[in-house]
Amino acid sequence: MRTNGQARPAQSPPRRTRPAGHIRPAQTIAAQEDGFRIPIRTSDDILEARRRARELAAKLEFPSIDRTLIASAISELGRNIVHHANQGEIHLQSDEGARGMVIIATDRGPGIRDVRSALQDGSNPEHGLGLGLPGVRRIMDEFEVVSRPRQGTTVTVKKWKPQ
Fold this sequence. Notes:
Strand 3 and strand 4 form a beta hairpin. It contains 4 helices and 8 strands. The chain is an alpha+beta fold. The chain is globular. The strands form 2 sheets. The protein has a 6-stranded antiparallel sheet with strand order 3-4-5-6-8-7, with helices on one face.
């Protein structure tokens, strides 16, 4: 369409965004007695996982600094899922006796060829300023990676409450 002899730029369709404070539909997040299972496909899902983790950490009476560390770990694990596997899941739960929090990040992606190498600082320049797996290992109290080529990866981390 022309106006005054000039071509009008094509308008892109309006972006669909979630309103502030939007809560995901209940069927997408499985609330369980001891935590949550959050499907991870997009950065919005990672934000939801961070929110739920902070909620559970507050319920378990973690100090504020530990809630921040837990949220940071979830950001890194979620980014790995989205970037390398396109989709996966983060399971948040309290451990027995509510002494700490367990985070299990699972995907069915290509797997990690060399886990030892992936756990070295600076092993992945794509991370930029992100923590990557080495950073997650540093800020959490327990860390385990199980990865099989073409079958996926499961990262289990734990944060214990201060005594």
